[in-house]
């Protein structure tokens, strides 16, 4: 598979969007919906989206592998957000966009750990990162084993911090998934999605409260088989009728590196809506030998070589 784009910024919708004053289907606290129009986004047209690689949009939390203290390391997504007063001013400006508005980055934004770094392509002014059109500064923090906030991120990295549990298509048969221990050095500068029991309501049905299961999936690694054309009506029909459409959405990886997406919620469709395509796929475990008490690597190691008819059937003996 050709090299795919790294997810560093918020990905625009493949269609132009509009805001409707209705309760969001995606976020309970959001009193508006961002919905797709039938017009293809010029950004997608300029990037020749019709020739792009269509891949499954995964429902988890974004991660990044880059250097930390001289070694390949897993980083968690942490967008720097405005404090309450600045957020209130910004939302007022959004309702009346002709009113003047200027960010004071040093005073308007919440503090972040000293190890925080801004995401790629974040603009800077006077050496300070500038917020995007949503009022956020996308960024990353290194995952530390003793930070409970990122305990599920840490669970997919081995005790030496050199390998991660990665789910992706088998090299021999792309219809079958495999869980493997992959060296972080081989994932440098890639972004991945952390999915599992305690992430975003676990739409893929992985593990259980007694035995949580989490893994990383490289962005762009799960292609959509027989994707529909980038046409509003045909995409709506595909999401409602195709047996392969039980996905959160589609991300198109264009040859120039541009990424565009469509989410079910953009089309007014539910997510999750029954069994998911990913959870229904067969999977084989190829993790190798690990004997570090009760960590996730050791549990997978016991299943090494086992094949399951469905991803959600992967269970550990307690």
From TrEMBL:
Q: Which InterPro entries match?
A: RLIG1
Its required cofactor(s), as named, are:
Mg(2+); Mn(2+)
- Output this protein's name: RNA ligase 1
Catalyzed chemical reaction(s): ATP + (ribonucleotide)n-3'-hydroxyl + 5'-phospho-(ribonucleotide)m = (ribonucleotide)n+m + AMP + diphosphate
Top-level class of the enzyme under EC nomenclature: ligase
Q: Name one GO molecular function term.
A: RNA ligase (ATP) activity
Q: What does this protein do?
A: Functions as an RNA ligase, in vitro. The ligation reaction entails three nucleotidyl transfer steps. In the first step, the RNA ligase reacts with ATP in the absence of nucleic acid to form a covalent ligase-AMP intermediate and release pyrophosphate. In step 2, the ligase-AMP binds to the nucleic acid and transfers the adenylate to the 5'-PO4 terminus to form an adenylylated intermediate. In step 3, the RNA ligase directs the attack of the 3'-OH on the 5'-phosphoanhydride linkage, resulting in a repaired 3'-5' phosphodiester and release of AMP.
Species name: Zoarces viviparus
Q: Which UniProt keywords apply?
A: ATP-binding, Ligase, Nucleotide-binding, RNA repair
Q: What is its EC number?
A: 6.5.1.3
What is one GO biological process annotated to this record? Answer: response to reactive oxygen species
């Amino acid at each position: 598979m050709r090299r795919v784009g790294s997810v560093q910024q918020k990905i625009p919708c493949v269609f132009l969007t509009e805001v409707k004053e209705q309760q969001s289907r995606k976020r309970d606290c959001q009193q508006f919906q961002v919905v797709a129009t039938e017009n293809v986004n010029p950004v997608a047209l300029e990037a020749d989206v019709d020739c792009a690689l269509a891949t499954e949009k995964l429902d988890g939390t974004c991660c990044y592998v880059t250097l930390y203290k001289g070694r390949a390391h897993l980083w968690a997504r942490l967008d720097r957000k405005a404090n309450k007063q600045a957020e209130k001013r910004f939302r007022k400006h959004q309702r009346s966009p002709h009113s003047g508005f200027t960010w004071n980055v040093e005073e308007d934004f919440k503090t972040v750990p000293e190890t925080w770094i801004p995401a790629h392509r974040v603009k800077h002014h006077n050496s300070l990162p500038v917020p995007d059109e949503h009022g956020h500064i996308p960024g990353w923090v290194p995952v530390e084993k003793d930070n409970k906030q990122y305990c599920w991120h840490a669970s997919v990295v081995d005790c030496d911090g050199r390998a991660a549990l990665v789910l992706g298509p088998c090299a021999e048969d792309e219809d079958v998934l495999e869980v493997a221990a992959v060296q972080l050095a081989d994932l440098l500068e890639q972004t991945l999605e952390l999915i599992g029991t305690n992430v975003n309501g676990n739409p893929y049905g992985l593990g259980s409260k007694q035995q949580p299961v989490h893994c990383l999936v490289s962005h762009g690694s799960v292609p959509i088989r027989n994707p529909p054309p980038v046409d509003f009506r045909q995409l709506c029909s595909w999401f409602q009728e195709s047996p392969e459409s039980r996905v959160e959405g589609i991300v198109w990886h264009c040859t120039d590196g541009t990424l565009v997406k469509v989410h079910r919620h953009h089309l007014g469709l539910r997510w999750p809506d029954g069994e998911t395509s990913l959870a229904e796929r067969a999977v084989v475990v190829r993790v190798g030998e690990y004997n570090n008490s009760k960590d996730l690597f050791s549990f997978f190691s016991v299943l090494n070589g086992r094949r399951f008819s469905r991803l959600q059937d992967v269970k550990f003996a307690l």
